[in-house]
Design goal:
alpha+beta, signal, Glycoside hydrolase, 9 strands, 1 helix
Length: 127
């Protein structure tokens, strides 16, 4: 009976670890979206890289002429991800759904919906 329980625990842990690794691997690359703030659309780009099991990122805000803004941390928990942009006092929290990141940009006590798509061909509006 203990062998069966041990085998089940190992199978569950393996499944969880593979799910985490798969989510993290899917995040590597460039993510683009438009932050809608009132009447203004602000393009946001995350450049995510992976070294062994750690994700890191920079952020670009082309409308503001900002490139390679450091992202303090990239947190992954299952299908959820959070980008902490300390220099901007901002945090983007999203779920990985259907190949997209769907979530909210939180900054200065306000929250704005932000959907991001992966890849160089993802559309970013320019005002």
């Amino acid at each position: 009976m203990n062998l069966i329980k041990s085998t089940m625990v190992i199978a569950i842990l393996t499944s969880v670890l593979l799910s985490f690794a798969s989510s993290a691997a899917n995040l590597a690359g460039q993510w683009k979206g438009n932050l809608e703030i009132g009447q203004q659309s602000v393009p946001i780009i995350f450049n995510v890289t992976q070294e062994s099991d750690k994700l890191s990122a920079t952020m670009d805000s082309p409308l503001q002429g900002a490139k390679d803004i450091p992202v303090k941390s990239v947190e992954v928990n299952g299908n959820k991800v959070a980008f902490n942009i300390a220099v901007a006092g901002a945090r983007y929290e999203a779920s990985f759904e259907g190949g997209k990141l769907i979530g909210n940009w939180n900054q200065s006590g306000q929250s704005f919906p932000l959907q991001m798509e992966q890849g160089a061909t993802a559309a970013v509006k320019k005002n």
